[in-house]
């Protein structure tokens, strides 16, 4: 660094492992020893770093190593689903300290759901007062900068609601809200793929269908947060199914979990839930497998266009439908490799998500930590 490094920038060096002793910090930043001591003392006093075991000696007294203090604060997070919500308290490294899942219909509205979330966080916090920030993922299009729900896939009563002020009034910390698929994509990328690639397309196939785009290592939200809304891209030969958006044959209306259940019931199958569909697939029921695979082909049709447009290194399929049904994944692979360009698919991988239901929790925590532990936020925080 050619200019004087701030305490926030020194923290980034320690978190990344680039500088783990005072001497390292001086070498990397060019700061004088008194300046290094001042910044390290500031971070120690704020509980953001700790002095660890002695480092290797190069002659003389061994240096004390500096380590980021993940226990220096907590981050309450929640990932809302249509019927089930995951709630957790994470440390400053994004590791889950406490977690609980609750069954609640998000259509009961923000006046019911948000107080329940906040009450649950307070119970899990158990008196801790070192909350650094709060993160929330919701199944809706979100204007990220404002935290405003613009349009919702399964929670129409939330449209137009600005969530952060409601939660901040109670906890008094930064509150970040994003689309549920964006936070899951962030969780999958940073936890599984970040060391090897910067471009990823995550597609959630569940009650509804949505996508999160990682481009250049970060979330691609678009101008107003609407990037990734692939559920309302129409497919060919969908049968004229009316989508809730008013158009015909949107992939959401023909390939989602809801659509699979509808089509199997129309064929006389007694399926009350996706678990019933799984049982039929495992039993080798040919008609069920055909319905699921066709859903995968329709989904693959939309994903192939995204692959040509975005050129991701990997397409990750998540959500309960993708995780439960191999025929759907096979149908996606069949169409994507057939219809996407040769260059875009030369090294493309199509994989199932690895984090499972916990990806949303992880992504929410990372979203908050990227904000509250940024150099700018650390430097602006009151001492």
From TrEMBL:
InterPro entries in the cross-refs: ATPase_NBD, ROK, Tscrpt_reg_HTH_AsnC-type_CS, WH-like_DNA-bd_sf, WH_DNA-bd_sf
Record Pfam families: ROK
Homology family: Belongs to the ROK (NagC/XylR) family.
Protein name per UniProt: ROK family transcriptional regulator
Species this protein is from: Microbispora cellulosiformans
Organism lineage string: Bacteria, Bacillati, Actinomycetota, Actinomycetes, Streptosporangiales
């Amino acid at each position: 660094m050619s200019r004087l490094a701030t305490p926030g920038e020194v923290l980034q060096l320690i978190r990344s492992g680039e500088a783990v002793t005072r001497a390292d910090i001086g070498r990397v930043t060019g700061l004088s020893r008194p300046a290094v001591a001042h910044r390290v003392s500031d971070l120690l006093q704020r509980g953001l770093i700790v002095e660890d075991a002695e480092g290797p000696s190069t002659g003389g007294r061994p240096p004390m190593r500096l380590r980021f203090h993940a226990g220096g604060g907590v981050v309450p997070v929640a990932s809302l689903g249509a019927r089930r919500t995951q709630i957790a308290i994470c440390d400053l490294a994004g590791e889950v300290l406490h977690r609980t899942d609750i069954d609640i219909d998000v259509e009961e509205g923000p006046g019911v759901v948000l107080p329940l979330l906040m009450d649950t966080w307070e119970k899990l916090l158990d008196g801790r007062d070192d909350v650094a920030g709060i993160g929330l993922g919701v199944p809706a299009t979100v204007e990220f900068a404002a935290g405003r729900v613009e349009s919702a896939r399964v929670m129409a009563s939330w449209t137009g609601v600005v969530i952060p002020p409601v939660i901040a009034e109670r906890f008094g910390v930064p509150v970040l809200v994003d689309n549920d698929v964006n936070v899951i994509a962030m969780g999958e990328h940073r936890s599984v793929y970040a060391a090897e690639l910067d471009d990823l397309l995550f597609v959630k196939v569940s009650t509804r269908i949505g996508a999160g785009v990682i481009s250049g290592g970060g979330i691609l939200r678009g101008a107003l947060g609407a990037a990734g809304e692939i559920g309302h891209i129409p497919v060919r030969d969908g049968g004229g199914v009316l989508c809730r958006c008013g158009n015909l044959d949107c992939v959401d209306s023909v390939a989602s979990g809801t659509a699979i259940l509808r089509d199997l019931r129309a064929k006389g199958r007694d399926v009350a839930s996706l678990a019933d569909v799984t049982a039929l697939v495992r039993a080798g029921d040919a008609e069920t497998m055909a319905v699921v695979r066709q859903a995968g082909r329709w989904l693959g049709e939309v994903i192939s266009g995204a692959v040509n447009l975005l050129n991701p290194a990997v397409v990750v399929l998540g959500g309960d439908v993708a995780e439960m049904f191999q025929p759907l994944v096979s149908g996606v692979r069949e169409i994507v490799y057939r219809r996407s360009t040769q260059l875009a698919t030369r090294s493309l991988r199509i994989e199932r998500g690895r984090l499972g239901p916990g990806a949303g929790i992880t992504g929410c925590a990372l979203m908050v930590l990227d904000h509250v532990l940024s150099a700018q936020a650390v430097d602006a925080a009151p001492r």
